[in-house]
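Suppose you are handed only these lines of text.
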Amino acid sequence: MPGRALLDMKSRLDGLLKEAVVCVEGAAVDKDALLDIKVRYLGRKGGVSSFLKELASLSAEERKAAGEAINQVKDSLEGLIEGRLAALEERARTLALEKERLDVTLPGRRFPLGRRHPVMQVMAEIEAIFRGLGFDVAEGPEIEHDYYNFEALNIPKDHPARDMQDTFYVTEDVLLRTHTSPVQIREMKRVKPPVRIIAPGTVYRKDSDVTHTPMFHQVEVFMVDEGVTFAHLKGVLTQFLQGLFGTDTPLRFRPSFFPFTEPSAEVDIRCVICKGAGCRVCKASGWLEILGAGMIHPEVFKSVGYDYERWSGFAFGLGVERIAMLKYGIDDLRLLFENDLRFLRQF
Ligand code: DAH
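From them, the structure of the protein bound to 3,4-dihydroxyphenylalanine can be written out as follows.
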């Protein structure tokens, strides 16, 4: 028969266990509270250990049974608390993983990519064609002297051709260039023949309606050497315009007048829209006026100090917006200047 002391001890152990279980339940998901409970009941000075001191007062037989009972309580309490702690740990890890989860199917962030404006695309294409023909690229200032823009190009102050190009003047002798032809003068003054130059750039005219903008782009092309003739002009123009619009594009020359060329011509291509049948774009003529051209005037050679008995050359100039409109079938000039991305993204 176990003695009273042992029975009493077992019942107190039982009470301790029940109390500890209630505490553990109450601590629920609080890790620190669970650790406190662990120390309080299982630590060296904790509740369960205090029973060990009582063992001395028991008989050897009872001591064994009491020891077993103490260990049982200790083990089950330990198991309970460790189980809870492990579950908490697991839960924390799951939460952290969930938070750091990467959705590898998510599309990447797009970098907004710009692209060249259609006018600049056409410029680049024109440049590439002429580079292939051995021409160099030159540029001149947009704010220009009257001398380069007019005078040296055989357009004196009282010349009626000045009315053709409504000019923005900065002062009486300084203006916004009305064409890229002044680059002819600057380049020919800079280098001796032979020269083959293409001069792309921005030009300005006091003009604003459905088909004109006060700022637009031109490309000037000229070549000077010994024995350059109208046939060279025709050959280069054919190469150029068919490179741009396709080899099935016939050209036509009409006599014209420019002060800086003699003879002068206006050059048409067969309408790229209706192929010559006649449409709204070519005003039923079947042809599109595309550029002005001619043989460089002796007066121009005189201005730059070239011997016009020895050298000859051709020149032509064209509007880039017009070419872009024809090439891409754009029917309103304003679209090229409004910078509506829905429009620009199509090129
Ligand atoms: N500079 C002229 C203009 O803006 C275009 C031009 C015509 C240029 C005939 C030339 C040329 O070189 O020969 O209207």
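What can we learn from it? Residues 179, 181, 220, 258, 261, 292-294, 315-317 surround 3,4-dihydroxyphenylalanine (CB under 6 Å). The CA atoms of residues 253 and 267 lie 5 Å apart.
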